Amino acid sequence: MKVFKRLAAVISAVVIAVSATASMAVTAGADSIADTAKAISSGKSVTTYLPETSDISDYSISVKDTGVLKLSIESHIKEVNVAVYNSDGDQIKPTLHEAASGWSEWNFMGTQGEWNETIEKFKGSMSYSVKKGTYYIRLSNYSSWAYNAYNQKGKVTFTATYPSTTSKAKFKYLTLNLSRGYAISLGADTTGSAEVTWKSSKPSVATVSSTGKVTAKSTGTTIISAKCGKTTKKIKIIVT
């Protein structure tokens, strides 16, 4: 029984040591990236050269909101390792990976190209779910032998695209269609005893009374505004 207990303790210690080593390796890798990474912008093409096995290029990109970070890669080497880390030093896996041409395998560790003399380059993309913060991208030559297709010296070109999920649309006007000769009454809910002042930008198209009654006069467009204190609300009237 004592032998089994000692064996269990040894196994437990080994597992803890291995886990700690793996965690430290990731953190150390991310730290080194933070020290050497070149800042890049969304949508801008970047070219690097990785002619020898284990050659590395590090980059960083600042993400402003929750969304999807997409890496589109074009490589002239047989295998390129792609690793993306968050600011905590954790490597993140892609939510989507696509091989456009050349590569037979495309996974979170990188690529596996089945080279033949007719292939000039390999193409593919990876997508990652990200949130606001800084992310680090490491590209490395993962080939067991360094192959440079068409004497491109290990050329790898990639684009990191981060489309913002925040809409740039802005509210401008409410719109109301009204036929000539017709009228409609607009209302305004207010607090206190302040009066509402009504105004039409083009009285020739439609007039508005002091009580908010709009009368269509001729074909065209006018803006009806209602001002109460320091607040003004507007509605576009289209007369047909």
Description:
The chain has 1 helix and 19 strands. With 240 residues, the protein is mostly beta strands. It folds into 2 domains: 38-161, Jelly Rolls (Sandwich), CATH 2.60.120; 175-188 and 195-239, Immunoglobulin-like. The strands form 5 sheets. A 5-stranded mixed β-sheet has the order 1-3-11-5-6, covered by helices on one side. A 5-stranded antiparallel β-sheet has the order 2-12-4-10-7, with no helix packed on it. Strands 13-19-18-15 form a 4-stranded mixed β-sheet, with no helix packed on it. β16 and β17 form a beta hairpin. The N and C termini lie far apart (95 Å). Residues 1-29 and 102-116 have low confidence and may be disordered.
Summarize the structure.
The chain is 15% helix and 45% strand.
Keywords, separated by commas or semicolons:
single chain, 240 residues, mainly beta, Immunoglobulin-like, five-stranded mixed sheet, five-stranded antiparallel sheet, 1 helix, disordered N terminus
Tell me the series of helices and strands, N- to C-terminal: HEEEEEEEEEEEEEEEEEEE
Please tally the β strands and state the result: 19
DSSP strand content: over 45%
- Count every helix, treating DSSP H or I runs of 4 or more residues as helices: 1
Query: Residue share in helices?
Result: 10-25%
Strands of the widest sheet, in order across it, are 1-3-11-5-6
Q: Overall pLDDT, averaged?
A: 75
**What can be said about the biggest beta sheet?**
5 strands, mixed
Rg from alpha-carbon coordinates: 32 Å
Q: Decide which structural class fits the backbone.
A: mainly beta
Shape: elongated
- What number of domains? 2
CATH topology of the largest domain, anyone?
Answer: Jelly Rolls
CATH secondary-structure class of the largest domain: Mainly Beta
Question: Low-confidence parts, pLDDT < 50 over ≥5 residues?
Answer: 1-29, 102-116
End-to-end separation: 95 Å
